[in-house]
Amino acid sequence: MKNIMLFIKENLAVGLLLFALFLGAGNIIFPPLLGQQAGEYITPAMIGFLITGVGLPLLAIVAVAKAGGDLQLLANRVGPIFGVIFTSIVYLAIGPFFAVPRTGSVSYEIGIAPFLPEAAADHWAPLFITSILFFALILCLAINPTKLIDRVGKILTPVLLLVILLLAVKSFVSPMGEPGTAIGKYTVSPFSEGFVQGYLTMDVLSALVFGIVILQALRGMGMSDTKKQVKTTIFAGIVAAIGLSFVYISLGHIGNTSIDAIGISDNGGIIIAKSAEVLFGKLGSIILSVTILLACISTAVGLLNANAQFFNKLFPRISYKTFIVIFTILSMAITNIGLSTIISASLPVLLIIYPLAMVLMVLSLVDNFFKGGQIVYILALIPTFFVSLYDGLKEMNIKIAPYESILKALPFYEQSLGWLVPAIIGALIGLIIHKLIKK
Predict the structure, then answer these.
(1) Name one Pfam family in it (predicted).
(2) At what angle do helices 282-314 and 80-92 cross, to 10 degrees?
(3) pLDDT at 47 over 90
(4) Are residues 377 and 317 located together in one domain of the fold?
(5) How many CA atoms lie within 13 A of 89 on its CB side?
(6) Taking a C-beta distance cutoff of 8 angstroms, is the pair 285, 273 a contact?
(7) Which pLDDT tens digit goes with each residue over 235-277?
(8) Is 306 found in the same domain as 158?
(9) By residue range, what is the domain housing residue 390?
């Protein structure tokens, strides 16, 4: 009995760590926006969002755990050059280029700015000072990754869950109003729009790199058996998935019932900030600030840790601590360009690499079926890239008429899922070629 309790305690701690790593800035600000814009179609939209925000990240955790916790080893199944380039892009995207600066910017805009005079909040100095203090704390927490279980999983996460629970319960017990009317793409295809909006959380990309953080933490706990590491990582993924589902549904409900009380907004951060004040008054703003700060701190620590470990392995002459310092300073600098600019710059990149990551992940889960045939990966990812590349270019207002006329003939193109059928066809052709070569 004692051994069972110890097993549950250790595994739960790792699960809470993974949940805390996932729950960052995007996870807080995007569900309320979806809830408000989806209106009466909140259910199909949220199902789509949960697939890319919870279901696929869980599968990614399993895929990376089976690959030994290393995204590069997973990507190397396509080819070593692809492995280095793709993995580096993924790490930088969810690290110092986009996701980590977003945590600093959101921490300021929702956690600090509401308590400042309006004139001061619009000035560059408060954001700059906040970013210095925020990333100084991040640096202290991330400098020694073996302490992550104690510092994040056992301390920050329980507090984070408590403040989320308070907001959620209040929003269900005393809803602010009735759901509004769906707008935009939610009126035509709420499921697929919710699916694509889940990209913005970057959870699938995060899941592909968090494996190394979890394995490092497990080794710090003295767990060296590979099979046990895989089982613990999968258990942690399930815990994190349950926690994220609760948070997304709760925050989506808050946004869905908020229009009567706060009006319509195109900024999820503003929606949740105003909703918290309606639900709890000034205390609500304080609760939200604590929630945002804890979520962003834990996510930034995990992402910087993963980045530093990867690039230290790629360039062993540069120490882990040096990379941590470099990436922390870079993240602090990018934070100061502002949240809107960061989100606008990240979306085209996500539209390009997210489909590649999902196809790679799904193929890795059925890898035994085709015995790891490289041609299957290559022929599935090539058409995926050509379609997703144009989605990214289109988001940057770069349109190529002949290119677009071909892609428009693809199923689900209007829903930004035009890559799906070509990926399946490419994989099937690769499978046939692989079988013929074997024979």
Answers:
(1) Branch_AA_trans
(2) 150
(3) yes
(4) no
(5) 14
(6) yes
(7) 888 888 888 898 899 889 989 988 888 888 877 877 888 888 8
(8) yes
(9) 366-439
Question: 275-282 long-range CB contacts below 8 Å, 24 or more apart?
Answer: 275/32, 275/171, 275/176, 276/167, 278/176, 279/167, 279/170, 279/171, 279/174, 279/176, 279/254, 280/166, 280/167, 280/170
What is the DSSP secondary-structure string of 143-185?
A: S-GGGHIIIIIIIIHHHHHHHHHHHHHHHHHS--S------GG
Within a domain: residue 181?
yes
Q: How far apart are CA 430 and CA 412, in angstroms?
A: 22
Contact 56, 278 (CB under 8 A): no
Q: What are the residues whose beta carbons fall under 8 Å from the beta carbon of 263, sequence distance 6 or more?
A: none
Give residue for tokens 């015995």.
Answer: 371
For 87-142, give the DSSP string: HHHHHHIIIIITHHHHHHHHHHHHHTGGGS-HHHHTSHHHHHHHHHHHHHHHHHHH
The DSSP call for residue 221 is T
63-72, 124-133, 146-155, 200-209 — which one is most confidently predicted on average? 124-133
